[in-house]
């Protein structure tokens, strides 16, 4: 059987666009939806994108579900989601910020506090917002663009990161208000308990069977539930938390790689190195140096 190839969209896909401003391969800011190489054909996005619709409308697909995006709408896409663009009105205007997966990881080392929001966004990526919230996001967009264009500022990446972090917290608060009126299903509640359990035990336990036992379900049922709710496997979630903590320790801790491998309960530094490279494509030493 012929394997179906799903194109990947990252910042390299739009790097030569003159109407987009960049910081390295981590961040892009622009106004026109035409700059994004998206069509009706499904593409996998490797970025977090914050977008607002000012005027007009567009019809998009996120994870094969269709959404009508109208004026005063806020849209968030997360890394690894499937996106499509079906229709754009002639009078459509918007504002867009695209951020790499690594940039997001570095902004939110304490991912746990935002986890409920990120889980909600998986199935609710679009929200109609009021004029005040729209103005707030557009102010961030304008201010951020000014700072990104200050090429003589050697700290512009750090400045941009700080502004983005503040903006993401405001965006998360907007979606938090929408969450308050949505009742969680039993599967969603169990999934959140699974994630909470990972954060409690990830330094010592990395098997699906352990977490299934904690939740009093079978590994097969837990794997199926997690895949259905989040689109990722239970093993991928466990690895994501371990790798995120590894990255934080490698970047911000004075500990050696050997000490970090011990803290994360790997048998030795070699096992830690293999695990890290398997999930990131680079060694812990190489990541620590970038």
Automatic annotation (TrEMBL):
Keywords: DNA-binding, Transcription, Transcription regulation
Pfam families in alphabetical order: HTH_18
Domain HTH araC/xylS-type: 192-290
Entry keyword Transcription: yes
Domain of life: Bacteria
GO molecular function, one term: sequence-specific DNA binding
Record protein name field: AraC family transcriptional regulator
Species of the source: Coprobacter secundus subsp. similis
